[in-house]
Design goal:
The chain is α/β, with parallel strands linked by helices. It has helices at residues 24-38, 57-71, 84-87, 91-100, 114-120, 123-131, 144-152, 192-200, 221-226, 237-244, 263-270, 301-310, 316-326, 332-335, 337-342; strands at 7-12, 42-47, 77-82, 104-109, 138-141, 158-159, 179-183, 207-211, 230-231, 249-252, 275-278, 293-296. Helix 8 packs across helix 12. Helix 11 links the parallel strand 10 (249-252) and strand 11. The strands form 2 sheets. Strands 2-1-3-4-5-6 form a 6-stranded parallel β-sheet, sandwiched between helices. It comes from Mesonia hippocampi.
Amino acid sequence: MKMSKQKILMLGNLPTSDARSIGGATVLTKRIYEYLQEQGVKVDFLSTRKNWKPKAQLFDYFLLPFKFLRRIKGKTHVSIHASADFHLTIAPFIILLSKLCSKKITYHFVGGDFHKKYERLPLFFQYILKRTIFSSNTIFMETLEMITYFNEKNIRVEWLPNSRKPSAIEIPVKSYSMRFVFISRVTPTKGVEIIAEALKTLPEAYTVDIYGPIDKRFYTETKLNEMGLNYCGNLPAEKVVPTLTGYDVMLLPTFHQGEGYPGVIIEALSVGVPIICTDWNALKELVANHKDGLLIPTKSPKSLANAMQSFTTDNYTAYSKNALSSFKKFNSDIVFKRILESYD
């Protein structure tokens, strides 16, 4: 293991005991943080959010510059890993403070739709972002669609897809048994109700288990059961891959606005579990239609039911082998090296 001489102040959020903190952005940030520690990098982690109640991050953002200035002394590099609400609020100010302190900056956009938000911004705000965030030494973005958009605007950005470690568990050889699984935040925009409607039209042999933190603004466990869904609870990050190996196909009929490269899709690929997901944002960059999974239109229970029925004992093995092969380009042991290299 090569010891880095760099001293990093890393900004972002990690999963906490508050279920609202558990999501793709925090899980990815945790994996990057752990990777840097494994590589011997001296990392001081500064959480940008303490409170996870709606709008509470505004108070956290107000305090963040003061915390930043207390922690920046002795650091050589600032590494920011953030989603859209951070980019458009406190991020420009944190960038300015970093530059005033003569620190190099790595800025990582987590999520897959910031280019769409940027396009809608007034020119004045675009100018502010160009002079701050987009002046960072290294800028990483999650999807190729975002890379193409910003490169065409002469903004230099690099690809850093969501990634996962190769599975250390033995992948079981299994025959297709019509067992489907959903693992994500249990909220309407992730397609939970689409799954419920599709399931009503399928024979009883088809089963779908639901895992993930429940968005209590919309659902309770009782409500999910009344919808005909088998809710199995939340999963800690280390249990996701072992759980996936017990199923045939993963479902993610999402139309979530900020969807990038969902980590759970990459985890499914890592153990040869094909995916049915929507052709939404950049998901087609993750799932190759009719190869390692199926792409369907958004908000279409009929399309989801048809896709579920298209898997058979004859074609399942090929889908599973292709899924395992597709994982290679999302191997975090390779992808996260780019972050390490940005610190030099």
